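tool_call: predict_structure(chain=1)
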Amino acid sequence: MSTLDWRPAKRPSRTPLEGESVVLEPLDPVRHGDDLYAGTAGADATWFYLPYGPFASRDEFMRWLDERAAMNDPLAFTIIDGQAGAARGLATFMSIEPEHGSIEIGHIWLSPQLQRTRQATEAIFVMARHAFEGLGNRRLEWKCDAANEPSRRAAERFGFVFEGIFRQHRVIKGRNRDTAWYSITDAEWPSRRAAFEAWLAPQNFDAAGRQRQTLEEVRALE
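tool_result:
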């Protein structure tokens, strides 16, 4: 087997990542905490598949943010909705393995205001672009509870390739978790990037902000 003509990837740093409709800022509980906590109101179900939450009080939530902000892996970013000018969600780089050129987007929490929006999709695009083009990774991973159908549909919508199920992989909140694994490789990234960019283009949305073509439809035209 031939030796790879490749050098290890860089580690992600606490540097903002900018898109057209979103900015991903390193999690700062002081700056982002109030907006994020406001987004949890009436949204207990959004924490169901995550290993933490929902939170009983603002103080408990803020302590949790402080803990997350101090971590390097997972490295948390706050998703800032540019239109609202407010923090609407969280996502992290995790399972960071520069020596293998592998990284994961995970621990994703989206407030109801951010779910199923152009901004939510662009946040994933911005992170994926940085993983490959900014950091030089060979592999981008997405993992989720195999029972989490919305997350699995999202992975497939974004162009991640299903790799299989790790059975009885975790125990989360007292429940068994079988984990579904997905990935995009560096060879696949150019086509995924083109599809993201075509979907995010202003002409793909009408005056009311409704998409003209789905991301899957755009990718099918490649």
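agent: The longest helix spans residues 118-134. Proceeding to next step.
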